[in-house]
Amino acid sequence: MVEKDKPKKPKGEVHINREVCKGCGFCVEFCPSHVLALDTAFNRKGYHPPVAAKPEACNGCNLCGLYCPDFAIFGVRLGKVEEDSDDEG
User: Fold this and answer.
1) Which partner for 58 in 12, 30, 39, 83 could form a disulfide, CB atoms 3.0-4.6 Å apart?
2) E strands along the chain, which residues?
């Protein structure tokens, strides 16, 4: 029997400009990998910007950046791809 290749999971990073963010939460809501959460700390404007609560889960899809009305966040897909593990639950 031929063993199928395991699917590869893309890796990415999220970049956040905390001082531009107005805390709308669109990035948190639309992130398919649930990477983001709103911070409990305020930025200089008095808003709660997002933080990467689970940065290792980012796949760089950039949905956060596409939905951000203030261009305060964006995702970048990295060149490395790792094998998806069966242990995730």
Assistant:
1) 12
2) 8-16, 36-38, 50-52, 73-83
Q: Reduced to 3 states, what is the DSSP secondary structure of residue 54? A: coil
Q: How far apart are CA 49 and CA 19, in angstroms?
A: 8
- Please tell me the predicted confidence (pLDDT) of residue 51: 98
Cα 22 to Cα 44: distance, rounded to the nearest angstrom: 10
Question: What is the model's pTM?
Answer: 0.78
Residue 47 lies in a domain: yes
Cα distances from 20 to residues 15, 45, 86, in angstroms, run 12, 8, 38
Residue 32 to residue 57: CA distance in whole angstroms: 10
Residue 56 belongs to domain with CATH number: 3.30.70.20
